[in-house]
Amino acid sequence: MDKKKIFTGILLFGSLWGFSECVIGSALSDSGLPSGAIMTGFFALTYLVISRILYKQPGMQIGMGVIAGTLRLFNPFVGCHLCSAIAIMAEGIIFEILWYKISFDLKELKTITMQVSMGVLTSYIVFVGGFIVTQILTPIISGPGFYLENLIVILPNIFSNGLLPALIGGITLPVIVLVKNIDFSLKDRLYYPVTIGVSILCWFVVISSWIFIRF
Question: 27 vs 7, 23, 172, 209, CA distance in Å?
Fold first, then answer.
C-alpha cells in the first residue's frame, strides 16, 4: 500500500483514538462508569483491529498509540494527562507484540471460541500492561522516581481491574470479525480529504477546548 495512505491512516485512527479518550472517556468517567475498561475493551481494541485489517501494515498500531497518547496530553477535561498518555502509547506497542503472528485477514480466528478468547486475552494484557507501564514510567518522568515496592503493592488491584476490559473485549472482537468484510474503503479522490479532515477536526476540538479551559 502507498506509504502516504498508511501514514494518513495512522494519523486518522490515532486521532480518533485520542479524541475518544479525551471526549468519550472523560464523559464516561464523569458519569461514574468504568471509563478505562470501556476505552480499552471497546474503543482501543476496535481502532487497533480495524486499522490492522484495512491497512495490513505491521507497526501501524505503534504509530497510532503515539499519536493518540500525544493528543491525550492536551485533554482539558479530566485525569492525569501524562499517565494516560503513557498508558495509551504502551497499549499500542503491547497490541503490536500480541498480534505479531496473527494474519491480517484473521484466518486463525475462524471460530467464535477463538474470537472471544483472543478478545479477552488481548484486552486483558493490553489494559494490565498499559497500567503497569504507566506506573513505572510516570514517576520516573515526573520526578519522584520509581520504587518497585510501590508497584508490587498495587499489582493485585491492577490484575483484578483487567477483568472488565477483558469481558468487553470478548464481545468486541467477534463483532469486529463479523463486520470485517464490509467495504469501508474510500475512493482515492475522497480518501485524503476525509482522513486528513477528520484528523484535523479531532485535534482542533481537543486543543481548542484545552486552550479555552486553560486560559
Answer: 29, 6, 20, 14
Domains contained in the chain, CATH given: 3-214 (1.10.1760)
Q: Which residue has the cell 473485549?
A: 169
- Confidence (pLDDT) at 17: 97
C-alpha cell at position 149: 515496592
Which amino acid is present at 144? P
Q: Which of 14, 75, 70, 79 is nearest to 207 (CA)?
A: 75
Distances (CA, A) of 114 to 106, 117, 150, 171, 177: 10, 5, 36, 12, 11
Sequence length of the chain is 215
CA dist list (Å): 101 to 97, 106, 110, 131, 210: 8, 10, 15, 24, 39
- What residues have CB less than 8 Å from 97, skipping those under 6 apart? none
Residue 102 CA to residue 92 CA, distance in Å, equals 15
The 3-state DSSP class for residue 75 equals: coil
- Separation between Cα atoms, residue 5 and residue 188, nearest integer Å: 10
The terminus-to-terminus CA distance of the chain in angstroms comes to 43
Over residues 141-190, the pLDDT tens digits come to 887 788 899 999 999 999 999 999 999 999 999 999 998 777 666 677 88
Q: Are 26 and 78 in contact (CB under 8 A)?
A: yes
Instruction: Tell me how far apart the alpha carbons of residues 186 and 178 are, in angstroms, rounded to a whole number.
Output: 20
